[in-house]
Specification:
8 strands; globular; 257 residues; 39% helix
């Protein structure tokens, strides 16, 4: 267990497991919305599978999540803050290269990091579809912001007949993980001028897009990537992380590097 100050002074928590083999690079894991490194990767056995395969794992708790600081101001989540947190983590650890695995929100952050920084060797995007990774349009950004506001409203106040099913699922998941709903609402209210991981063509590194068979369809996003491939495991957006096939797919893909 360790922590560091990010670019704006927000304190972030991370954990390192396994040892780094000579000539290898670590694997950085980025979790999803309302989750944490522990919940998204340790509990389902993904970290253990990577360590058993001889990989060193670095798991980051995103700002607003897990054991990291939880700002309640929307501005703290704007201007690519979460991708810049990953840059700060690489700088703090002196990493010249690493494989990066993200799930859901973490996949969007991983994708953006790969657009901003050249230190990614291989990239895995879990639970991410083409609604995130396709080309940005004003309509797409507006729809993304409307969805975010609905989730924020549900986090801030009691749910009623106007609460969408999607927002209800996010709130129930946040409550099940003991997340800070004020911080999550602030994240959702942050002003965005682009969707979470747009412009897939800018991601040049080998990339695996992997989703559950009851979740997003990964093939379209993979086809937009210059060096992308797709794989499907079992499960929906929340349960796919528990399919051992997901961990095996990650290990196999990263081993090609």
């Amino acid at each position: 267990m360790a922590e560091f100050e990010s670019f704006d002074g927000v304190v972030l928590h991370y954990e390192t497991e396994g040892s780094l083999a000579p000539g290898d690079v670590p694997v950085v894991l980025l979790h999803g919305f309302a989750a944490s490194y522990e919940g998204n990767f340790v509990a389902p056995g993904i970290t253990a599978t990577l360590v058993a395969a001889g990989r060193q794992v670095i798991g980051l708790d995103a700002r607003g999540h897990g054991l990291s600081s939880k700002p309640h101001e929307p501005a703290a989540y704007e201007n690519d803050a979460m991708a810049r947190d990953v840059i700060a983590l690489f700088d703090h650890l002196g990493l010249s290269s690493a494989d990066v695995v993200g799930y859901s929100m973490g996949a969007g952050n991983a994708m953006r990091f790969a657009q901003l920084d050249t230190r990614v060797r291989r990239l895995v995007l879990g639970g991410l579809g083409d609604d995130i990774g396709g080309p940005d349009t004003p309509e797409k950004v507006a729809a993304w912001n409307r969805r975010s506001q609905r989730v924020a409203d549900a986090m801030d106040a009691p749910m009623d007949d106007t609460t969408t099913d999607m927002a209800r699922r996010f709130v129930r998941f946040a409550e099940s993980t003991g997340a800070d709903k004020q911080a999550l609402a602030a994240l959702q209210r942050s002003v965005r001028t682009r969707s979470m991981g747009a412009d897939a063509a800018d991601v040049k590194v080998p990339t695996l897009v992997v989703c559950g068979d009851k979740d997003f369809e990964p093939h379209t996003l993979a086809s937009r990537l210059p060096d992308g491939r797709a794989e499907v495991v079992s499960g929906d957006h929340l349960s796919a992380v528990g399919d051992p096939a997901l961990a095996k797919a990650i290990v196999s893909f990263l081993a090609e590097g």
